[in-house]
Every structure is written in structure tokens, then in C-alpha cells.
Amino acid sequence: MNLLRSEREIEPGRDEAMRAAFLIRKWLTTQNQPRGEALSALGLQPKGEEGSEGYPIFSRQYDPAFTVDAEYIATLPDLQNSVHISASSTAIQHVGISNFRLPLRYRLPVGGYISLESSVSGTVRLEADKRGINMSRIMRSFYRHAEKSFSFEVITDALSDYLVDLSSSTARIQIAFSYPVKILSLRSELEGYQYYNIYLEQILLESQSKKIIHLDYVYSSTCPCSLELSEHARLVRGNLATPHSQRSVARISVVLAKDTDELWFEDLVKHCRRAVPTETQVMVKREDEQAFAELNAANPVFVEDAARAFSSELSSDPRIGDFRIVASHQESLHSHDAVSVLTRGPTFAANCIEPRLFASLYHVG
Question: Does the CA dihedral 149-151-156-162 come out positive or negative?
Fold first, then answer.
């Protein structure tokens, strides 16, 4: 009896077809030729409209029961590691993700923790001989440590994973969040939450680590010149006049000094308040508004004065190494802003101004 049948007599079922498709995919990964040429060698190169002779008809149904194993995963195409790198390729200093959000816990100086929604940006250096990185590994690296009590040490652990998982010599993580601090009104004894935009950044560069805290401090700035001119109008001419003041923002960036374990966010805020005490208020009654007017009159400040006052305060703290102060007084007199940048140390030294640097300091209430 002849048990052999021709191809035309074979009527495979779905399982046989799936196994055949699996073998074809696996075979394609071993071929050193374009995918189209490899398919053509099997007689599967598309020749026309779907369903015409020689064109495979694929399923359009999602199979929720389909599972994968290690053998199947090995057949998946890996574009980044299989595509040839052109001779013109160059190294890229930052490659990664931005605004990956998740809740994180932060330690409080009084003990305990607070959970806040945080935005994570992570990058690594990409060498010239590599096509790209696996972006999901950045998130996976971070999630491995995100459930721990949050601190710079957790960022360090995630960065160490980056260097291993992505085979890079340099890695960075920056985390942005809004940190609430309860403050007392000036005279009415009311309490309210002030929210501070804070960014934690850590850099690993060939085993050298640097930890940076960025904080946006929002305050009122009364122009000293305008104050004196207003008082002149009152005294000399008996004419009521008001000095101009405006909402202002200073972005304070500090590098933690070597062997410094902790610099509380509240400590950095206190430095800012001592330098420029006219912080914007949360809870305000009439007596508080009057107090704020008196506080502004007692502390008139040009943008240059503010930068130097912040610098003096930061310089007094041995836990702080290099720092940068970027101040913007968003003028109510002029149609432009008054700005200043003051730095100490090499970390933030730069001859150029980052485009839209000062525009990023606008505080939206």
C-alpha cells in the first residue's frame, strides 16, 4: 500500500499551520538576507492583493489564549542588535525616556513617608557601535527598586542596573514631583500647604556619582527703585503712589557635598526664606495681606540682589557643594522679565544660555 500522498491531498488543520508559521519565523531569524528574499525562496513572496496566488492569508483574530515560551521569544526579531550600524554613526550622550510616571515614597524629616506622583526621566550614553537601547529596560530597572523606601540610594541602585542592563558607561536619572509643606500665615495663624516643584537628579559617570537637588522657590519681589520713587511722590508732592512688585521664581540647584547623606527639602526651603523672606502666601486674611505689604517694603530686591542673597545662604551650608541660582522677576512694570544666573563650581558652569531656560521658570497657579 502506498502511504505517501501528494501536497494537494494534505489538508492541514490550524495546529499544523501554527507550527509551520512558528518554524518559518524561526528560520527567518537565521537567514543572512532581506526578509523579502527569504520569503521568496519559500514561495511566499507577496505577488498581489490579499488572497491572490502565492500570498499567505493571515489571521485577523486576536487569540487571548496564546502563550509564549523561551523558544518562541527567541524567534522574535531584535532590530537593535541585528541591524548593521552605518560608518557615519556617532556616540549619543543621552538616550532614554522622559515623563515615565509612577507613585513614589519620600522620607519626611519628622519621620514616616509621603507618597507622591513622580515623573521619571532616565538616560544612558549610547556608543557609536550600537544602534539603540531597549527603552523598557529603563522602566524595569526602576520598578525593581521603586517599592523601597525612596531616597538617593534607591536611585543609585537603579542607575547601577542601567549600567549593567544597557551596557553603558554613563547613566542618569531625574525625578520630578510636587512636594507639599504646611506653612503658617503671617498674622492670622491659619495654615495651608505650599507646593514646591522639586527635581532629584543623579549622575553616574564611570563610577563617579553626583547627586543634585533642584527646587523652584516662588516669591514676591518689590523693586527698590520703584519703592523709593513712590515714597518721593508721597512726601514731596503728597501724591499716592504704589511701588511695583511681581511674582518671581528662583530655581535653586545644589550638588550634595561628598559624604553628605541627607539634605532635607525643608532645609533648602529655609535657606531660600532666609535669603528672600517674601515667599508667596497660601492662607491670607486682611491682617495677612497687610503684613505681606509690610514684609515686601522691608525687603525690596532687585534680581541681582536675590541671586547674591541665595548664594550667601547656600554657601553657609557645608552639605552643599556646587550650586546654581537662576532667578526670574516677571515684571509688572515692563513687558519683559529681569533675570540672573549665578553659579559656584564646575558642575553648572556654562557660557551659553539654554533656550527657554527662563521661560521654564513661570509659575502657574
Answer: positive
